[in-house]
Structures are given as C-alpha cells and as structure tokens.
C-alpha cells in the first residue's frame, strides 16, 4: 500500500483500503450535522466518496490503528474520530498512527449496520470482505496494535459502555482494555481466547493474527447521537493512544 502526502495538511498522508465502498457522508443528516466542517474534515468527507480512505500521521517505531464506522449506523465514534484527527494534525507524534474514520462510507451514508448485506464485524475472516482488506492492510503495514471503536444501544449486544478484549493469544489485548477502563470507566468484557464467542470480529481476528486489539463501545441509539456519547468515544480513543504514550 502506497501513501501520498496530502500537501495542504502538514504531516498527513493517505491511501485507500478499497475503491468500491465510497459514499456521501453528507446524506446522513445525523452524522453530517454533528461534524464541524474544518478544512481537514471537508477533505476527509470528499475522500470518502471514492472508497475507504486510510490516513497516516507520525513516523514513530510503534504502529497503531484507530478504526471506526465498521457499522455505519454507529455514529458517535465516527464523529469522535474526526475530532481526534483534527486534534492530532500537525503534532509531533511518538508513534506512527493510522486512522480509518469511515470503514464503509457507503454504510455510513445510509446509516446501515451492514455493507452490501454483510456484517463487517462478523466477516473479517472471510477473504476479500471489506474488513478482511482492513486486516490485510494491518498485516502488510506492520501495524502493532488496533483499537476498533463502536457504539451500542440498550437491549443490544453488549448494550453497555465497555471494552472487549481477550487474554489469549495476545494478552496485551486484556492489558489495553484494563488501561482504558481505568481511565474512562468503561467496563471490561474479556474472553479467555479470541473468537471463542463468535467469529469474524475485527478485534478477534487481529488478536488471532498476533496483533493485540480491543473493541471500545459507547452507549447511543443506533443511527443517533446520545448526549455525551461522542465525548466518551473520544476519551476512549485518547486513552488507547495514551497507553502507548501518544
């Protein structure tokens, strides 16, 4: 995967995971209405029309990925992700950080949980699925740690603010989850072995491939933005980075 420098934004590079997942985020009124239209955000939204963009900042030895929008109808983390990108732009980062704010822009546009009728958080192990392409990018780029950010509604799974992790085969997944929990108060939901409950989650498949990962959830109705949910998701993202001293 080749990255190109974005000349108008100091220290920002970008590439694409794929070119068949693009969408007009502005058509999702709940999402678009909560986005501050900074120059950077305008550029990201324009880029998302053509596929799934991935952005890169920093040149440190550790390589991290922050991911959101795996479920297009989970809005708060996508908004928080853009806020984080704006915060970090131009900063001297101690790690190399990759960002995928909209995993499936088409699904975000439509506020749909699935992408082309596929649940992307149950299909990372399926060859050529969109999240499988994200996994391949993680492996090809040598990314060391992954944070996948979601939201959940009452009476759904997990239906509470939480951090998913596993103790094996990557015990650092559990350590990251506990660190985030201690910082922001999210409950730790841990499994003894990755993928033991269901197959195909980005977090689980990363862990099974030797890349420690966590899934962070905040509470908000699907296709909506609960009060404080964006701020809590942003706090989870900041804590994930803080674990690595970023």
What does this molecule look like?
By secondary structure, the chain is an alpha/beta fold. The protein has eight helices and nine strands. It has helices at residues 29-32, 39-48, 75-88, 105-110, 130-141, 172-184, 202-208, 229-243; strands at 4-5, 13-18, 52-57, 63-68, 96-100, 145-152, 162-166, 187-191, 213-219. α3 (75-88) crosses α8.
List strands and helices in order, with pairings.
Elements: E1 4-5, E2 13-18, H1 29-32, H2 39-48, E3 52-57, E4 63-68, H3 75-88, E5 96-100, H4 105-110, H5 130-141, E6 145-152, E7 162-166, H6 172-184, E8 187-191, H7 202-208, E9 213-219, H8 229-243
Parallel strand pairs: 4-5, 4-6, 6-9, 7-8
Antiparallel strand pairs: 1-2, 2-3, 3-5, 7-9
Helix pairs in contact: 3-8, 6-8
User: What's the count of strands?
Assistant: 9
Give the low-pLDDT segments: none
User: What structural class do you assign from the helix and strand content?
Assistant: alpha/beta
Q: What's the CATH topology name? A: Aminopeptidase
Please estimate the helix content. 25-40%
- How many helices? The count is 8
The major β-sheet equals: 9 strands, mixed
What is the H-and-E element order? EEHHEEHEHHEEHEHEH
If you average the pLDDT, what whole number results?
97
Radius of gyration: 16 Å
Strand order of the largest sheet: 1-2-3-5-4-6-9-7-8
| Tertiary shape | globular
CATH-derived architecture:
3-Layer(aba) Sandwich
By CATH, the superfamily comes out as Zn peptidases
End-to-end separation = 24 Å
Could you say how many structural domains there are in total? 1
Report the top-level CATH class.
Answer: Alpha Beta
Question: How much of the polypeptide forms β-strand, as a percent range?
Answer: 15-25%
């Amino acid at each position: 995967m080749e990255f190109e420098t974005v000349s108008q934004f100091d220290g920002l590079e970008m590439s694409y995971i794929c070119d068949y997942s693009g969408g007009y985020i502005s058509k999702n009124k709940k999402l678009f209405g909560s986005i501050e239209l900074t120059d950077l955000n305008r550029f990201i939204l324009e880029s998302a029309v053509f596929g799934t963009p991935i952005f890169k900042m920093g040149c440190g030895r550790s390589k991290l990925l922050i991911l959101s929008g795996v479920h297009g109808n989970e809005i708060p983390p996508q908004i928080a992700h853009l806020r984080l990108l704006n915060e970090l732009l131009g900063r001297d980062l101690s790690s190399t950080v990759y960002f995928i704010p909209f995993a499936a822009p088409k699904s975000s546009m439509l506020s749909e949980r699935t992408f082309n009728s596929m649940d992307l958080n149950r299909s990372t192990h399926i060859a050529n699925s969109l999240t499988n392409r994200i996994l391949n990018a993680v492996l090809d780029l040598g990314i060391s740690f992954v944070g996948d950010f979601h939201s959940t509604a009452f009476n759904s799974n997990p239906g509470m603010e939480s951090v998913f992790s596993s103790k094996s085969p990557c015990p650092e997944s559990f350590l990251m989850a506990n660190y985030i929990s201690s910082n922001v108060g999210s409950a730790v939901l841990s499994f003894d072995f990755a993928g033991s409950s269901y197959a195909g989650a980005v977090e689980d498949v990363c862990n099974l491939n030797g890349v420690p990962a966590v899934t962070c959830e905040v509470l908000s109705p699907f296709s909506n933005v609960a009060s404080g949910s964006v701020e809590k998701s942003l706090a989870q993202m900041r804590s994930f980075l803080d674990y690595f001293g970023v």
